[in-house]
Design brief:
Elements (H helix, E strand, L loop, with lengths): L1 H5 L15 H14 L1 E7 L5 H7 L10 E4 L2 H8 L5 E4 L1 E3 L16 E3 L7 E7 L1 H7 L19 H4 L2 E4 L5 H14 L7 E3 L8 H17 L8 H23 L5
Parallel strand pairs: 4-5, 7-8
Antiparallel strand pairs: 1-6, 2-7, 3-6
Helix pairs in contact: 8-9
């Protein structure tokens, strides 16, 4: 704009032509913010079987691992002294969304296709490092892959949840490791609510229910009536156990 005006006034100084278009600059600065950030990613809401499979692969076994359960209030209090942002991720359809207006927006948004993650992000942003990256062609060392903050596990975590895909041997290894690290956490180690081993009565009822349905549909006409009667009686006991199991108190 100033250069267009200067063309009509010979004595007026012209600004140098930019060597970087606005889109390239925005993209470069967005990447600079990513390079200047560290994040710890959590998921809020109910436990997700899909997230176990996507993000747990202990010892190369897909879906096997542990998850830490806490509350938003506990997380915020635990990192208050470390100057961390704590915010849920906003999911957008970028081709329909309005332009970002806050400098932290690129770090706290994701494409709508990731919405099932229900991500809550703990973010540490290094403003000094970012400032050094702002000039074009700046040569700045990378930050460490990880940073560490003082964080007392027993003050923050309500449960240490073992994956529904973990077998008994893995569960035993987890319990031994937790006991060695801090025996006060032993009673917080639990099986996933999706694990059949946590609710054996419900699993038993479901299996019996499936068998009963097959019998009533006539898929096994060779079964005598007295066998069918005993199966129905067992099915009734199974559903009673399932109701008791659902009412058992568990920590959330």
């Amino acid at each position: 704009m100033m250069n267009r005006i200067a063309a009509h006034y010979p004595g007026m100084a012209r600004s140098p032509s930019p060597d970087e278009d606005s889109w390239t600059r925005i993209t470069r600065l967005r990447r600079a913010k990513t390079r200047s950030s560290h994040a710890s990613c959590w998921s809020h809401g109910e436990e997700s079987e899909a997230l176990w499979r996507l993000y747990s692969a202990d010892d190369g076994c897909q879906g096997v691992g542990v998850a830490l359960r806490s509350t938003l209030a506990s997380l915020e209090a635990s990192v208050a002294a470390h100057d961390l942002y704590v915010s849920p991720i906003t999911y957008l359809r970028y081709h329909e969304a309005q332009p970002f207006t806050d400098e932290m927006d690129p770090l706290l948004h994701k494409r709508h296709g990731f919405a099932a993650e229900r991500e809550l992000r703990l973010l540490k942003f290094d403003l000094v490092h970012y400032g050094a990256l702002v000039p074009k062609d700046a040569s700045v060392p990378e930050l460490p892959d990880h940073i560490y903050v003082d964080w007392v596990l027993r003050d923050v975590i309500d449960e240490i949840v073992i994956s529904p895909y973990a077998g008994e041997n893995y569960e035993e290894l987890v319990r031994l490791a937790i006991n060695a690290a801090d025996p006060k956490l032993n009673d917080r180690v639990v099986l996933s609510v999706l694990s059949e081993r946590r609710n054996p009565a419900i699993s038993s009822a479901c299996r019996l229910g499936h068998a009963e349905i097959e019998l009533l549909n006539g898929r096994d006409p060779g079964v005598r009536g007295d066998h069918r009667h005993r199966l129905r009686a067992a099915l009734g006991r199974g559903h009673e156990r399932a109701r008791i199991g659902r009412n058992m108190p568990v920590r959330q």
